[in-house]
Design goal:
By secondary structure, the protein is mostly beta strands. The chain is built from no helices and 14 strands.
Amino acid sequence: MSDYEVEQNITLQNGKGVLVNLLEESGNENLFTSWDHGDLELDLEFMMPKGSNSGIYFQGRYEIQLLDSWKVESPRHSDCGGIYQRWDSTAREGEEGYQGRPPAINACKAPGLWQHLYVKFIAPKFDIEGNKLSSARFDKVILNGKLIHDSVSLTGPTRASMAEDEVPKGPLMFQGLFLLQLEFLLQVYLLPFLLLH
């Protein structure tokens, strides 16, 4: 449970199929799946306490932001459902972030309420020599029943990813403070799919 009026407040009780990643003073680490994925459909529920900030990194590299964005009128890339920006530390100050994508609308619920996220992710493709043939893509992102991204190509990893390279497969990475309700332990409603051309 979470009190929507209190910053980062969450009450825990033992349960089944729920992952909890608590923000502590020290020792915070990202959570990684023990398996790697390529193309992937992810269907999950999450809950954000007030003031919380997190993210889900597909292949550990491409982030869909999870943030307490309730009542935000003009969402940005850094709001819930946004595709977080890439980062160039060599750029001029104030211009380091680029290619972030805000959600089409703010579909975020109040803190402390369970929210539903569906993502269809297409992994980057490479030839036999490792040359990139096509970019990674968030083919469809739906938050609480609202389409917030449709066929968004990603030219490279977003900021704070586990690595700067691009690969055919990588783990899911969960960052920060949030709860995930998983219908199937470890399977996380993950439905690999085939691309038919």
